[in-house]
Amino acid sequence: MPEHTLGFLLHDATRLIRRRFEARAHELGLTTAQWRLLVQLKREGPLAQARLAELLEIEPISVSRLVDRMEEANWVLRKQDSHDRRVKLVHPSPKAISVFEQARCIADATYEKALRGVSKHSAERLTRTLHQVIDNLSDDEARIEGREEKDE
């Protein structure tokens, strides 16, 4: 049955995790997409929208719209890059910084709920396995992108 294949199971698990996170983060006014962007800013520091698009693996126009909405809601600020006047960097706002730990707790509780009844050993094995799946598919993606660049 297709609903029992890896792709369907990963999709369903991701959908349910996202839904659970958003239900709990709603009180903060934060969506999963916004949370993912804030996590990248926390990890990397201020970033150009083009780099955010790469890291989030979404189209630049989608990142632009997301940042527009987040700026309107006071989650992020756009500031001139001191090294390149043509570039504006996206920074977390004081509001984002102040609620980051609350959102992190919501994310952690969501993952804890998702892994309830799964032993620590099995959860670690699952994480390693998913990393291997990502690495396997990333290798293929890099080869495909390399071919596309040669074709151009």
From TrEMBL:
Annotated HTH marR-type domain ranges read 3-135
Secretion signal: which residues?
none
> Entry's PROSITE patterns?
HTH_MARR_2
Q: Give the UniProt record's GO annotations in the biological process aspect.
A: response to stress
Query: Is Protein biosynthesis one of the keywords?
Result: no
Do you know which SUPFAM superfamilies this protein is assigned to? Winged helix' DNA-binding domain
Listed SMART domains: HTH_MARR
The GO terms this record gives for MF are: DNA binding; DNA-binding transcription factor activity
Going by the UniProt record, its keywords in alphabetical order are: DNA-binding, Transcription, Transcription regulation
* Keyword field contains DNA-binding: yes
Protein name, entry field: MarR family transcriptional regulator
Organism equals Thioclava dalianensis
